[in-house]
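Quarterly update from the structural biology core.
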Amino acid sequence: MNIVAPLNFDDAFCRRLLESMNEGVSLATGDGVIVYANPAEDRLYGYGPGGLVGRRLGDQHAGSPEESARLLGEIAAVLKGVGEWRGERRNRRADGAEFVTRARITQVEMDGRPHWLCVQEDVTARRSQDAALKESEGRLALAASAARVGIWDWDLETGEMVYSDRARAIYGVPPSQQISRESIAAITHRQDQARTRAQTDRALDPAVREKVVYEYRIVRPDGEVRWVRAHGVAIFAEGAGGPKAVRYVGTLEDVTEQKRIEKELRRSRRRLTLAIDAGRMAVWTIDSETEEFLRTPELNRVLGFPEDARPTLEDIRERYAPGELARIQSQVQAALKRGDSFFETEFRYVWPNGEQRWLLLRAEVSFSAKGAPLAVIGVVIDITERKEAEERLKLLAREVDHRANNLLTVVQATVALTRAPDAAALKEILTGRISALAHAHQLLSQARWEGADLRRMVEEELRPFQLGEGSRVRLEGPPVALRPQAAQSVAMALHELATNAAKYGALSRPEGAVEVSWTGGGAHQPLTLVWTERGGPRVTRPAGRGLGMTVVERAVGGALQGSARFDWRPEGLVCEISINTTASGVLASSGED
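Predicted structure, tokenized:
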């Protein structure tokens, strides 16, 4: 048995021990005067050997005298209570440079008096590194948060998995739930589990070290299926048997919305392709600089070329009907001058076999940042059948107009000759109403059934009541063209108002007058027509609801979605008719804005 004798720590040995330490050691009296400092302590503060002896503890503090006194007071209070103070403090070297030390100060008794024994080390560099690391982690967390990207870290040696709050939110996992490879596999969609596991194995294989981004589906605890995109990088360390994966870190991103948009885009492209094929449209594009001409196979059919032909731009331009190419080029230049990038026109084209066709051209020009044309893309549609149908319809419409006028004339004559106990009243009412329809029908015929002018309609309806005095009727309003259904309904309402005025109102006296005004009539503005009478007999509100009021209300209601409001003023009736122009079949093209 070996017996080890205790070491004799004499002053010389203790001094050599202190001088060999890397930490700074100093001893100060209770009133703060330094009586000993080892070489490491002198170097720490930038002094030569013994340079700190005789100085006070507060002299090296980097703060103000008040801060130094407060720190010494704090240390003294702690030493008095527990006998030891630990902490960090800012110091100043002999050259004025500041640095930070981590210190441990203990109160000891020497020669019967209290002393402070201080052991400290410079942690300035470590503090800078910690701050830089913290700042870097903060930037990473901020960037990940802004990009809505989750971060995960898998320690392969311990099996511990750390997921950021965003990564947990993507998976639908609460913060308190522990995460493992098994739990992640359970969340992964069953059809994607084998693929993601194989991807992970390739990433962790030292011979492969795959770093590809991969996407897969997950089934969250609430049953919702989401798409995620993962990007992992394995970290390898050298071991006894060669390199080995020790960590697997990466990012996680929810791409469900992106997947939905991509799917919808694919569907949209398929629908567009089907629409182009169904509409028998030929799509083409021309590079403005190189004049490279690309087109779909349908273009040969539309232009009358054989299916396997490769006509050039010059071959196509030669077949425009006389004057058409120059007209189209002029229209294009005018559109570009206006700043329009979209262009549409119809033109005549002669097939190689001599047959003349009607084509519809729609094109759009793309421009560079400097405004120079880059390319033109467009479609061409054969509208020959439509143009021929339009001509047939015009002929048919003229025939229908002729027959309808004849029919209305016959009906009017028949009603006029009808005999009944109240034949006079019946004849007057029915004749007037049918005449109003005939007037509207005549106006529509003259406009090729595209619409009747409202002003002319009012003039025609009130002309019989003017008695040769134009001042009796005053009209005011913007140009408005009504479609057939609306024109007939408005004509019926005007006839009822004019008839009532001639019997009981302003037009029953020579001094009476009627003012008809209208406003609106745009595609997004209601058409408001106001009938105002003055100078007639004193008006009182009728006790009951007459047939004329009912006819007016029904004429502007229904499909026109309109209304009529009657104001029985003493000086004359005021009727306000409002028609919803957003309803189908109200305005003709000339009245739209």
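Confidence is low (pLDDT under 50) at residues 1-7, 416-420.
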